[in-house]
From TrEMBL, chains A, B:
Keywords: Cell membrane, Membrane, Transmembrane, Transmembrane helix
Bilayer topology term: Multi-pass membrane protein
Transmembrane regions listed in the UniProt entry: 30-48, 75-99, 111-135, 162-183
Similarity comment: family membership: Belongs to the Casparian strip membrane proteins (CASP) family.
Annotated protein name in UniProt: CASP-like protein
Source taxonomy: Eukaryota, Viridiplantae, Streptophyta, Embryophyta, Tracheophyta
Organism: Forsythia ovata
A Gene Ontology cellular-component term: plasma membrane
Length: 186, 186
């Protein structure tokens, strides 16, 4: 019976659970990429549509705040948009890994690209977080005022848009972890 | 002759160059970790010792700037110090990979820890970069003034200390790349 099973092309006993685990990892990889896309896309849209005009104005100045007033927030939107595009483009490769769970070269490529994208997204998100912190708290030593006292809803929206980006970073970190585990099990 | 060579415990012909390449990668890994340690340690020290007292003062205020005035710079120092400690602690594992180039589990662990540390270092460095940019250029819309016009040498030193950190990020990115390649060749 055992010889017959091996002749019929079934994998040996110890290889079968390995393939199953790697296929499970690949499926999780696919789902998590979609979660990350939702996070980064949401961040990009939430930040990119943020502006607030205060209901009072003087003769010379109309108090208006938009994300594009701060270059760091522009970088945040660009970083999130690029990572979203990358994650969508990486989905076919993720599907390929579900079908062919023993793939090595493509997994290596994906680890490297994921790492680069995670670094890029982290830099955008933490630079924006530093500015958001400054907007909330200000800095008395540098004489930078907390603009959130005036632009309240602007600040809330900007702070909220960071969340999706940090979810994206966490998911990318887990994706690299899973890819490394799958690669070491091959 | 060929049988004799295999009986003497030598690896088969196609495995020998693989091991040699992996050993080469492991040696490069060790050297690059030392480069990264120099970068991040230099950054932490350069930022941590930065302060400037201006040569003039009024009756009430003495103009003094230190890195600890800005919480982001404190985070930068802490992040660099932690990554330096991690890199030094990872050196024995790197030596172990030179000796035993076929190791898989430890390489996987190192990829995951390297990735986490890279994300941590990137967040510290880019948050600091965002604040340094603000200190140089200011922001007229938010009414934040460019403090670098007064604290010139403070700003130069702070900007310079970012360099080591970004070198560390690049080296960690390459370390992850090399580890992934070595893992996929095993």
């Amino acid at each position: 019976m055992k010889v017959g099973a091996e002749e019929a092309g079934e994998p040996p006993m110890d290889a079968a659970p390995k393939t199953a685990v790697n296929r499970g990892i690949s499926r999780l990889d696919f789902i998590m990429r979609i979660v990350a896309v939702i996070g980064t896309l949401g961040s990009a849209i939430a930040m990119g549509t943020t502006n607030e005009t205060l209901p009072f104005f003087t003769q010379f100045i109309r108090f208006r705040a938009a994300y594009s007033d701060l270059p760091t927030f522009k970088f945040f939107v660009v970083a999130n948009a690029i990572v979203t595009a990358y994650l969508i483009l990486s989905l076919p490769l993720s599907i390929f890994h579900i079908v062919k769970s023993g793939a090595r070269a493509t997994r290596t490529v994906l680890i490297i690209l994921d790492t680069a994208m995670m670094a890029f997204l982290t830099s955008g998100a933490s630079a924006a977080a530093a500015i958001v912190y400054l907007a909330h708290k200000g800095n008395t030593r540098a004489n930078w005022f907390a603009i959130c006292q005036q632009f309240n809803s602007f600040c809330e929206r900007v702070s909220g848009s960071l969340v999706g980006s940090f979810i994206g970073i966490l998911v990318l970190l887990l994706l690299i972890l899973f890819s490394a585990v799958a690669l070491s099990r091959n």
